[in-house]
Amino acid sequence: MARRSGEATREEIRSAASRLFRERGFARTSVRDIAALARSNPALVIRHFGTKELLFLETVDLSLDDEPLLDVPLEQLGERFVERLLADDDIRGVYLALVRGSNEEQIRVRLQKIHEGTFVAPVRARLSGADADLRARLAAAVVGGLLYALWVVGDERLVATDPRELVVRYGALLQQVLTP
Amino acid sequence: MARRSGEATREEIRSAASRLFRERGFARTSVRDIAALARSNPALVIRHFGTKELLFLETVDLSLDDEPLLDVPLEQLGERFVERLLADDDIRGVYLALVRGSNEEQIRVRLQKIHEGTFVAPVRARLSGADADLRARLAAAVVGGLLYALWVVGDERLVATDPRELVVRYGALLQQVLTP
DNA sequence: GTCTATATGTGGATAGAC
DNA sequence: GTCTATCCACATATAGAC
């Protein structure tokens, strides 16, 4: 096989890791698996990224900050938020990998950060009043609950429900927290 | 050390496993750890329970069926449910171990079963109407969201909040799903 | 039933040739 | 930069003496 440049190899490894971590999670993805998918070898993976955990932290991340799609009247934020979460395939993989990997302390910290930035912050920014922060966190818990039921548990009845109905019903529910 | 009876040894292993799985989860608990805590050895652990996974499934379980504490008027069920979940230390350990271990298929199935029996069923039993099942499942998602935020993510602001306030606020929120 | 010793496998990480 | 070969730690599970 033709020899690739260092940067190209690095990218291929990063891409393979990103995919496998999202599909199988941290524990069930080995450095060997990543190397194989990247048509490389374990030694190179470590050379480029140091450790498996560092590679995970570098490839499994997420940011919804400054999400223009959430720029709707507060009264519509509940539905809009749920719609946004269900539409995004990337969120599912990242969320699952982080939750299931969260017995590793560094991964739990990353989950904390993403929970904060993706679920709490967008809501917090739209609320005011003395208890705005607490309300945003309760809303974030509600949001996380949907992802938990759908993807971690895999509640078959919910999974089989028309997403539009979930958006309407769960969105209305979330809206209750935002504008009681 | 005095030789113990087979049954006593079995119980000691079961007890050690139950504790370690709850405290550290499946992946971070080794058969050696369990054997050591039970003042026994790995061979016996396997002899008595077959595999580590079978031992996990036998020791990490939960049932809130026929919970008399939830025998309150429907209008109070939201608060009561949250109060019940937060008061029970056992739920926390079991929930965490199951969620974090859920990349193992059998453990995910167990989580599914417990989610169903502990979160969905008690609510489902109190609701009526064509969409009762769906509403119960949405309620279960909301419930799971609180445990997720508190224990999996470890949202520090929520963890530091007076449990009684959580009961009141999150209970009211849950109540909205039960009696809109 | 209980133990010691070990088979067997896997995975992260490293050494060193090219 | 990239590879092969391997070290090493640790895990589950088993064999066989007592």
Terminal residue distance of chain A? 63 Å
- State the oligomer: homodimer
Q: Output the number of helix runs of chain A.
A: 10
Strand content of chain A: under 5%
Q: What structural class do you assign from the helix and strand content of chain A?
A: mainly alpha
Radius of gyration of chain A: 19 Å
**Succession of helices and strands of chain A:** HHHHHHHHHH
Unreliable runs of chain A = none
Mean pLDDT of chain A: 94
Helix content of chain A: over 70%
Of all chain pairs, the largest interface belongs to: A-B, 40 and 40 residues
Tally of DSSP β-strands of chain A: 0
- Largest sheet of chain A, if any? none
Shape of chain A from CA axes? elongated
Q: What secondary-structure arrangement, pairings included, does this model have?
A:
2 copies of one chain form a homodimer.
Chain A: H1 6-24, H2 31-37, H3 42-49, H4 52-59, H5 77-87, H6 89-100, H7 105-124, H8 132-153, H9 156-159, H10 163-178
The first copy, chain A, binds a DNA duplex (18 and 18 nucleotides) through helix 3.
Structure commentary:
With 180 residues, the first copy, chain A, is mainly α. In chain A, 71% of the residues lie in helices and 0% in strands. The first copy, chain A, contains 10 helices and no strands. Chain A has helices spanning 6-24, 31-37, 42-49, 52-59, 77-87, 89-100, 105-124, 132-153, 156-159, 163-178. In chain A, helix 5 (77-87) crosses helix 10 and helix 7 (105-124) packs across helix 8. Chain A is elongated, with a radius of gyration of 19 Å. The A-B interface holds A 24-25, 27-28, 99-100, 102-103, 108, 111-112, 115-116, 120, 133-134, 137-138, 140-146, 148-150, 152-155, 157-158, 161, 169-170, 173, 176-177 and B 24-25, 27-28, 99-100, 102-103, 108, 111-112, 115-116, 120, 133-134, 137-138, 140-146, 148-150, 152-155, 157-158, 161, 169-170, 173, 176-177. The first copy, chain A, binds a DNA duplex (18 and 18 nucleotides) through residues 3-6, 9, 30-32, 40-44, 46-47, 51-52.
